[in-house]
Each structure stands twice: as structure tokens, then as C-alpha cells.
Amino acid sequence: MFRRFTMVALTVIVVQAAPAWGQDDSSSFTTERGRAAIEFKDDAIQLVAAYYYSQEHHDSRWLLIEAAVSTEERFTVHRDAFRLITPGGVEIPLAPHTRFRGDVERVRLLVQNASTTRHSIGSYFRPWRQEAFHFFRLPGTGTIQDDFVVDSDRTALGDLFFASPTDAWANGTYTLVVELEGVRVAVPIELD
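and the corresponding C-alpha cells:
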């Protein structure tokens, strides 16, 4: 009973403190960690997103965002918890894995080109237990997951791939949204 009450209290605090970017000011919980890296951190959740390569190279279908998540309470995070909101308000879920695999040559090139601009997103978290999550996998590189678990002792890190409905991403401020059982975090993603 106490745990349930605590979860509800934390949910209310986070939802009120972290509305969608552009609706209200959540900057008191958000810190820029570089030209293309952003951190959201409050008493319930920590999220770091980095998108150095995609910030300047977004003239193709794919957008790559490195993400790391940790929470105080234990959560199972499903792939549908992540979405990107365009400057025009269109919500784009993570790309379906079938579309990802169907465009494997273009994705391989993106991953290869982005390898030199990777950001050490795990360095913003306690080093106790960091595990990779794999919503996406290139052929022959392992098993795909549909969810992962985080808590105060466990951070999950992985790549998020979004596919543009128009095969390119316009310049502007997008919003990366993560929702976990009523907890909602939104951070800006600036594409130049």
C-alpha cells in the first residue's frame, strides 16, 4: 500500500513538473550537456539524450538518438514509451523494427557515420549497474528487446531510431517524450 501511494505521489510531481516541451517551462529539471546532449533529472527519473550526428545530418529518413534512463522506483520501460513530437505537433513513435530492417543499408551507414560522434551518456549516471537495451539490431548482431527494467541501481542505455514520414527531418525543435506509468518526461531535440 505504501509503495503504491509513493508511486502515485511521484507520478503527480513528475507530470506537473515535466509537461511536453513548449507547453510549460521544465527547464529547472533540464540541463544542456553539450551542443546536442540534454539531461532531465528530478527526484523520480533521469534521462539523458544525445544526438550529435543527427543534429546536423538529418536529411534522410532516419534520426538516431542515444538515450539513457534511470528511475528511483522500479519500472519496466516498453518501446512504446518513447516518441518524438515534431515542431508542428505530429507524434512519431519509434520506428517499427520491420521498417528498420527493411532499410538496413541506410541504417548501417547512419550507425557507421555516427560512431565518431557518440557521447558518453552513461557518465551522467551512477556507475553501479549500466545495461544496454536493444529495441533495434542490425542483422547478425543479437536479439531485439521490447522492454527493459530500470530502478535506482540500474541504468539502461541504447539507441532510439525514428523514421521520418517524409524521408527527411526539417530543422527545428522536436520533443523527445518518455512516458512510464503516468510519469512523463519531455526534452528538446534541436535539429540545425
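(Above: one complete record from the training split.) The chain has one domain: 2-191.
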